[in-house]
Structure formats: C-alpha cells, structure tokens
Amino acid sequence: MNERDITNAVKAVLDQMKEKGSHPENGHVCRCSQHKMTLKAANALIEKVKEKAAKMGVSIVIAVSDQAGRPVAVQSMDGAYIASFDIAVNKTFTSASLKMSTEALSHLSQPGQPLYGIQFTNEGKIVIFGGGEPLEADGKIIGALGVSGGTAEEDTAIAAYGKEIFEEVLACL
C-alpha cells in the first residue's frame, strides 16, 4: 500500500463513521467532537429532561456543565423555585468534580461515613442530595447534569433519566 491508498482508506472509514453516527451497534461510539460538552448537546439534553419533568408535573431548573463543572446551559421551567437555579448549577459542579452522582454522595456524606462534612468544602458548592449526575461519552466524563425543583426523589429520578438518555441525545446531533 502506498500513501495514497492509505489516505483513501482512512477517508472511506471516516465517511462511514459520519454516516453511521454515534451508534455502538454500528461499531462507532463517538464522533470525536463529543469528547467535550457543547452548547448544542447541553440544550438537546435539557429539552429531553424538560419533557420528562413536564410529564411528571414538576417545574425544575436544569443545568448542564462541562467536565470541570462550569455551566454550559441552564434553563428554568415556568414556576420553578428561585433557589433551584443555584442548587442545579451546584449539583453539576458536585457531580463533575467528584465524578459521581449527588445521590451516591448523599450516602457517603452521612455521619460516620468517609465523606461526612464534605458539603462544607469548596465554598459550600458541594450538594449532598440527589439530582446531580456525571455525563459520559465513550466512558469518559465530559460534563454533568443538575436538576432541582422537585422532591429529592423526583430530582434524582429525572437526573438519572437524563444520564441514561445522554448518549442517545449525542447520537442524534
């Protein structure tokens, strides 16, 4: 094989990957550009999460951050609590910086557990109740989702739903 043949082969493979999208069943999981959180991905996820919350009858704030916990997009549904804005953003910070859901952290931060008192670190930005989830693409954390406005159980369920459908959302972009 010469250099031209190799170049043509690589182009053919890349063209196939573009056609197939980000579908594991087609042998391609990532579109390379999805190794970071984009505004387009964040907004697409927020739309799906808002639909879920509306079906549940819950007005929430949804935040999506990058892998460092910096907000990429935040939306407040009509009727959401004012306090839910900061809480949702802080849930993304918590999940991104600790690489775990805030629901999992809630168990680890109870009295007698190894992370007891962690909520008093990082200028109080650590949230120790459910509603925050890390978001992955190809097994790599690229951001986080924060949901606030329902009960702890509702926030946890909605955030888990968002995490569950995130790769599907990426595949549709």
Automatic annotation (TrEMBL):
Origin superkingdom: Bacteria
Gene3D superfamilies: Haem-degrading domain
UniProt-recorded name of the protein: Uncharacterized conserved protein GlcG, DUF336 family
SUPFAM superfamilies: GlcG-like
Biological source species: Faecalicatena contorta
Pfam families assigned: HbpS-like (PF03928)
